[in-house]
Design brief:
Number of domains: 2
CATH class of the largest domain: Alpha Beta
CATH topology of the largest domain: Rossmann fold
Number of helices: 11
CATH superfamily of the largest domain: ANL, N-terminal domain
Strand order of the largest sheet: 4-3-5-6-7-8-9-14-13
Radius of gyration: 22 Å
Largest sheet: 9 strands, mixed
Helix content: 25-40%
């Protein structure tokens, strides 16, 4: 198959049976080296009464213990700085990438030279799948520094042969300048920053058709898979918008949409995906929503065995109409367990609020969810704060209230404010603000 359609045709089009046979072989290798070289994993496997010899097929992975982010934090705190799950020699280490720490103490992750090469290659594969080619000028507005996605994309651009603008997150006005000169054709950023850039483009009186930008892929937070948000980004920048997914502990850019926009393609030759019931932790079949659990098949320095991502999704193992056979996360990430809001008995995620708010053309791009305390009742109070695009709120509030009630199963309080009131972000948006009194 010609390279013009696939980055790695042989791997990306592997029949399911051959792909799973490869996964079993690589999984067995990973389990054996972790058991032999990592006291962290050996102790956990022994407590669970399993060993690498128990793996007959992929179905047997269900008997091995789950690893959570808190497990990693505790391990690194007890055995600083990297814990006892490093299974590559010190001479092979090349980079350190801590998690952002937005949900607790950062967890350090090491990449070996081989890990850098693998991550670079499958990031190039994802970028190729949503249309990036050597003649493109790629504006990399993912943060550089210690945030992992910026470097992965930068390395991949070099492998693809692209001209890269390593601007990173921030400098919003300059982001627009580069759309004009030298004329970026592809943008990588968080969805929140993409929307902020589009807003700045409008403020400067520049129309999307006046710039050569044609595509963008956005990750680091949910949003690009929300139809209303995708539409705002596409309309505001005049591009095709694609979703990107990664995790610091796993890899920054290992799943993306292709041009078919039919879910996030996984690099299943490197990452084994399971979807588990959040309560029983038993595997769920394709098409059922649960928590995504990931296992490194080829990671050298710091492999994760059954890492509990806390992200909700559903798995589609049918071949995509693009011709790729690797599994997809259908509909992207629908929410994080950490972000679950329980209000008056109803449960919902911020991404559901986003889908409603951004479907209203009368509302601007930003919104917040405030959780406070009802002083009279002593109970939680949830308020959705949204900006009116024109300053005119007549009639919008009641329609928004009804739409939120229909989507969430509960009616939150509403507060409409003037456009520009809420803070804009170049990184990960803080959608939920907890104003409750502690103690």
């Amino acid at each position: 198959m010609a390279r013009d359609q696939f980055w790695d045709p042989e791997v990306e089009r592997l029949p399911r049976s051959r792909l799973e046979a490869m996964q079993v072989e690589r999984l067995r290798w990973q389990l054996e080296r972790c058991y032999a070289q990592s006291p962290f994993y050996r102790e956990r496997f022994d407590r669970a009464g399993v060993s690498p010899s128990h793996l007959g097929g992929l179905i047997d992975l269900r008997h091995f213990p789950i690893v959570t982010k808190q497990d990693l934090r505790d391990e690194q705190a007890t055995h600083p700085p990297f814990g006892r799950y490093v299974v590559a020699s010190r001479s092979s280490w090349r980079e350190i990438h801590p998690s952002t720490g937005t949900t607790g103490v950062p967890v350090n992750t090491l990449w070996s030279a081989k890990d850098v090469d693998v991550i670079t290659d499958h990031t190039a594969r994802t970028m190729w799948s949503f249309g990036v080619r050597p003649e493109d000028t790629v504006q990399n507005a993912f943060a550089y520094g210690l945030w992992v996605a910026g470097l992965a994309v930068h390395y991949a651009c070099a492998r693809l042969g692209c001209f890269v603008i390593p601007i990173g997150a921030g400098a919003t006005s300059r982001q627009v300048d580069y759309f004009l000169t030298p004329g970026s054709t592809v943008l990588l950023a968080t969805p929140s920053f993409a929307i902020h850039i589009a807003e700045h483009l409008r403020e400067r009186g520049i129309k999307p058709e006046d710039i050569p930008l044609r595509a963008g892929c956005f990750g680091g937070e949910p949003g690009a898979e929300v139809p209303a948000t995708r539409a705002r980004i596409e309309r505001g920048l005049g591009i095709d918008c694609y979703d990107y997914y990664g995790l610091g502990e796993i890899a920054p850019t290992f799943a993306s949409e292709c041009t078919a926009k039919a879910g996030l393609h996984l690099a299943e030759d490197h990452y084994l995906a399971e979807v588990l019931d959040p309560e029983t932790r038993e595997p769920l079949g394709p098409g059922r929503t649960g928590v995504l659990v990931l296992t490194h098949l080829t990671r050298e320095a710091m492999p994760m065995i059954r890492y509990w991502t806390n992200d909700f999704t559903r798995l589609d193992l049918e071949p995509c109409r693009c011709g790729r056979t690797h599994g997809r996360l259908a509909g992207g990430i629908s929410g994080r367990a950490d972000d679950l809001i329980i209000y008056k008995g109803a449960k919902f995620y911020p991404v559901q609020v986003e889908g409603v708010v951004r479907a209203f053309p009368e509302l601007a791009d930003e919104f917040r969810i405030e959780i406070s305390t009802d002083d009279r009742k002593g109970t939680d109070l949830v308020t959705v704060v949204a900006e009116t695009a024109s300053g005119e709120s007549k009639g919008v509030q009641e329609r928004l209230r009804r739409a939120l009630a229909q989507s969430l199963g509960v009616t939150p309080e509403l507060r409409l404010v003037r456009v520009g009131t809420l803070e804009r972000t170049v990184f990960k948006a803080r959608r939920v603000v907890d104003l409750r009194r502690s103690g």
